[in-house]
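Researcher: Good morning. I'm working through a list of sequences from a screen, and I'd like to move beyond sequence-only analysis. For each chain I'm collecting a predicted structure so we can compare shapes side by side. This is the next one on the list. No need for commentary yet; just the structure.
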Amino acid sequence: MARFSLHPIGSALDADLLRAGREALAPLEQRLEQARATVRAGWGEKYVERIHRKGKLTTWERVERLADPGAPILPVGTLVNHGIEFGPEKRTSPGAGVVTAFTRVEQRWVMVIANDNTVASGSWWPRTPEKIQRAQEMALRLRVPVVYLVDSSGLFLPEQARTFPGRTGAGAIFRMNALLSAAGVPQIAGVFGDCIAGGGYMPIISDVVYMTEQAYMVIAGAALIKGAKSSRITSLDIGGADVHVHLSACADYRVPDDETCLLRIRREVATLPGSAADYYRRGTEPAPPVHDTEELGGLFPADYRHAYDIRQVLARLVDSSLFREVFADVGREMICGVGRVNGLWLGFIANNPELTDHPELVGEKRPGGILYKRGIAKISQFARAMNDDGVPLVWLQDVSGFDIGLEAEKRGLLGYGSSLIYTNSTNSVPTMTVLLRKASGAGYYAMAGMPYRPVLQLATPLTRLAVMEGRTLAIGAFRTRLDDNFEIIAETEEERRKIAEGMKQVEERITADMDPHAAARQMDVDEVVRMVELRGWLEAFAEMAYQSIGYRTVRNPRIWTLHDLLALTEPSP
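Model: Good morning. Structure tokens for this chain:
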């Protein structure tokens, strides 16, 4: 019982078998890289040059200098607002005008929230407040420090009606500032430029506030103050470092420039407690998977309707390709078990897309990727055990939905599904959801989809997020015009043509809606990542989940609930 043994998983694969998947994935990943580059460029080189002429750094330059040399920078919300135009001038807001990213500073993971000063001077657009709040929520759930790099001229006024009011309006950012403070999560702010109205409020609740000599924080700038022009009063005079460091005490320190400010913030982070990750590794060294992570891009068939071996995916994610499956002989359409990533324990729950033996009908198979009674009960119990043991959970979704039909209802599938939803609604252990491919219907909900508040939800270029596939939905929409074999019922050829065209339009529209870029644009997922990047994200998630102590249960593996479950379900030696 003192050791939780792991077993080798996966096998070497022939390069020819991987080629078709790689070829199908390549254009999708190229599209993603192009979108990332567009967002990274902000409003373009002209605005970069303007910032440099002022002796300032761009937002991305600040983030890169803040991070430890060679540390990964993992953005979240990259594609928020991507391709959407706003205001009478039809301006774009790459990344919603704010960079939110995890990175390491002085060997500690932090969340960085940085207004993009190349996009309308860091203005807040529709969804900017929501993106900032989502980043704050991630930091609160993981208890990782937040570093604000503030350079914001406030709301983008032509769209203020979509940014100012409501539960997720700009004011909710300051509520999250307060909740982070109440939870003891460190918040450090550097103020680098124009911080007007909400931009001025944003850093105030932080534990430490630095201001550069070019920075100011004001409720209203000089342009709105009567007599300011005739008196030659500037916003810097009203709310610069002279005022807020030496008079109002709204800031703590003044520094000459961006570089110095970032250096001081790094020193501030260095005074915080270090990561507990090494303590929770308990002497185990991180190790890469035995099977090459680069092969992840070739494991998925070009046709989303075709199956693959999810264990081969796990073998390219976990340390040393070692894994311990739990309840292996029950509900085989689902896989659950534990493995280490970056030397730290994680629990995994994944759909098995392959055909599996029917548990009651000898010799019959049934499709994978569907939630059946025993599989639901299995993963619900496993998820509860992980929560009790304090092991962070990773959900790997490729789900088509719940089993349907008379037999499913007679078996009480609704009740078992409700139990799983209850589990995911009440668990408190850090949870990460990856939409590998299909994320359909209530199965998406049941497997810790975004409505159930995972700390982080990632999509891949293959993700298809929707109630159902376009063809299936078109059949449902036109069901009264189809026979039992889903063939069109029509009295004339013209009527048949119109029905067929209508079904085609519905299918195409739904298929377009399932695009992962569309999901990321409207914040239905946090980030779209390449398959080969999944291992790096898991490493970061694991280390962040174990970085802070004292806010959740983390049991010694000797007393895991899983030992009891295995003793009751596995044959005695």
